[in-house]
């Protein structure tokens, strides 16, 4: 354990001896062992602890334990108690994701303001393996198969060369005490399910799983670095700044190997997801003029160019991207809710809910205000298109109400629903539908 720790320092961060490191400490065994290693090696450090208050008195006891640990080591201690539940709700993300964002943002603030060179987390090789498996389950590219990076920007993982068993053995041999989080034994979290049920099966198949994973992750990180260098040079060569927009020659995409991956490599920095890029690549073979939107940019397919522009201020205010249907989203005084149905017949009738074939949806979905020129295929009118403006005229929607009309689109830019008015025929639930999604609205 100690040898692995020193090897990491010598390979990646020899300046730890001269510049203090901010240690992210929860009070659990991994982070407490990391504190012990820094202290025993005489490395300058400070301790940062987030008390999210999610476990009541246990959370407060964790904080007291970390404060006492910092005092024994004579390390400065920083404690934060962010309102994770409010942040989670306002950003429509899970509590875990909200806690992660708040934690790392706060760590970076301390690093900058207090003169720390690095932020250290106590992730070890088992954490890295679990991260890879979670990424594979959710869908990932090459970067997600590399596990947890040993060093990224100012973030380091000095225990990454050790595994969970080695960390525990070190703690026991050195008489180290730590706090146990009861949630680690629960299967309520996805990572725990992987740890308790998936990894043991894989270890039965390959008793050397941790060793082979570490070697594979190292090679994959090297391959990813080389691919970044190659595609980065290609991207710099073909992208052209045209004063307010970026132009990409279409023949530089279609005329190359793996056009979808190349295009995604360019567009990912502008907020486009891989599923969108797949649809964009298909549209390159069609008529020019089609547009695709990310949270920050719009992409226009012109005759010979892809033209990429940042949204104007008005466009940013008039749209919301929805990357999954796990939680409701709030926008412009409206809440959009999602629910899986056993059958289309289970849908409550009325203008404020629709049922769609979930397998026909391409993500991310987008909510935005309707625009002149919007066209859709009204439900019940297969193969016949209609302007949204004509629908609103037919329904005698007054000018003020028109300003509040929004449309829900899929990742291909096709209208799913003129919200509260009429659904699109192309997403209707047919006889072969395997997954039915109810989408409904209500006041937030």
From TrEMBL:
GO terms, molecular function: ATP binding; tRNA(Ile)-lysidine synthase activity
What UniProt keywords apply to this chain's record, in alphabetical order? ATP-binding, Cytoplasm, Ligase, Nucleotide-binding, tRNA processing
Q: Which Gene3D superfamilies match?
A: HUPs (3.40.50.620)
Residues that coordinate or bind ATP: 26-31
Specify where it is mainly localized.
Answer: cytoplasm
Q: A cellular component term (GO) from this record?
A: cytoplasm
Q: Which EC number(s) are documented for this chain?
A: 6.3.4.19
Residue intervals of the Lysidine-tRNA(Ile) synthetase C-terminal domain: 365-439
The record's subcellular location field reads: Cytoplasm
Reactions catalysed = cytidine(34) in tRNA(Ile2) + L-lysine + ATP = lysidine(34) in tRNA(Ile2) + AMP + diphosphate + H(+)
An example Gene Ontology biological process: tRNA modification
Among Pfam families, the record links this protein to: ATP_bind_3 (PF01171), TilS_C (PF11734)
* Family of the protein in this entry: Belongs to the tRNA(Ile)-lysidine synthase family.
Purpose: Ligates lysine onto the cytidine present at position 34 of the AUA codon-specific tRNA(Ile) that contains the anticodon CAU, in an ATP-dependent manner. Cytidine is converted to lysidine, thus changing the amino acid specificity of the tRNA from methionine to isoleucine.
Q: Which NCBIfam families match?
A: lysidine_TilS_C, lysidine_TilS_N
- Tell me the domain comment: The N-terminal region contains the highly conserved SGGXDS motif, predicted to be a P-loop motif involved in ATP binding.
> What is the designated name of this protein?
tRNA(Ile)-lysidine synthase
């Amino acid at each position: 354990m100690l040898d692995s720790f020193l090897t990491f320092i010598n390979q990646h961060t020899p300046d730890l001896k001269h510049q203090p490191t901010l240690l992210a400490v929860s009070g659990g065994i991994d982070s407490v062992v990391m504190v012990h290693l820094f202290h025993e090696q005489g490395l300058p450090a400070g301790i940062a602890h987030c008390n999210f208050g999610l476990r009541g008195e246990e959370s407060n006891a964790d904080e007291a334990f970390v404060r006492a640990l910092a005092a024994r080591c004579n390390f400065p201690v920083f404690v934060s108690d962010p309102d994770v539940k409010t942040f989670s709700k306002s950003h429509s993300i899970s509590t875990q994701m909200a806690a992660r964002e708040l934690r790392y943002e706060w760590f970076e603030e301390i690093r900058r303001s207090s003169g720390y060179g690095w932020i250290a987390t106590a992730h070890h090789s088992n954490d890295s393996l679990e991260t890879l498996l979670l990424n594979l389950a959710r869908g990932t590219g090459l970067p997600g198969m590399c596990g947890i990076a040993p060093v990224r920007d100012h973030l380091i993982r000095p225990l990454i060369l050790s595994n969970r068993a080695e960390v525990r053995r070190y703690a026991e041999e050195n008489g180290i005490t730590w706090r146990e989080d009861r949630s680690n034994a629960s299967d309520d979290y996805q990572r725990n399910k992987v740890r308790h049920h998936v990894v043991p099966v894989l270890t039965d198949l390959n008793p050397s799983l941790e060793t082979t994973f570490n070697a594979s992750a190292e090679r994959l990180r090297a391959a990813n670095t080389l691919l970044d260098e190659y595609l980065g040079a290609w991207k710099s060569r073909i992208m052209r700044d045209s004063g307010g927009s970026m132009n990409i020659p279409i023949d530089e995409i279609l005329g190359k190997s793996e056009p979808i991956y190349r295009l995604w490599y360019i567009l990912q920095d502008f907020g486009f997801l891989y599923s969108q890029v797949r649809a964009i690549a298909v549209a390159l073979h069609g008529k020019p003029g089609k547009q695709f939107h990310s949270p920050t940019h719009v992409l226009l397919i012109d005759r010979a160019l892809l033209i990429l522009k940042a949204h104007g201020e008005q466009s940013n205010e008039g749209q919301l991207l929805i990357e999954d249907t796990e939680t409701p989203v709030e926008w412009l005084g409206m809440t959009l809710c999602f629910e899986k149905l056993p059958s289309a017949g289970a849908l409550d009738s009325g203008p404020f809910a629709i049922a769609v074939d979930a397998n026909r949806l391409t993500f991310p979905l987008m909510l935005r205000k309707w625009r002149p020129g919007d066209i859709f295929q009204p439900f019940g009118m297969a193969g016949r298109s209609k302007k949204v403006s004509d629908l609103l005229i037919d329904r005698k929607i007054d000018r003020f109400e028109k300003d509040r009309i929004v449309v829900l689109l899929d990742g291909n830019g096709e209208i799913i629903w003129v919200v509260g008015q009429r659904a699109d025929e192309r997403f209707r639930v047919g006889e072969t539908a395997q997954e039915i999604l109810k989408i409904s609205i209500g006041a937030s």
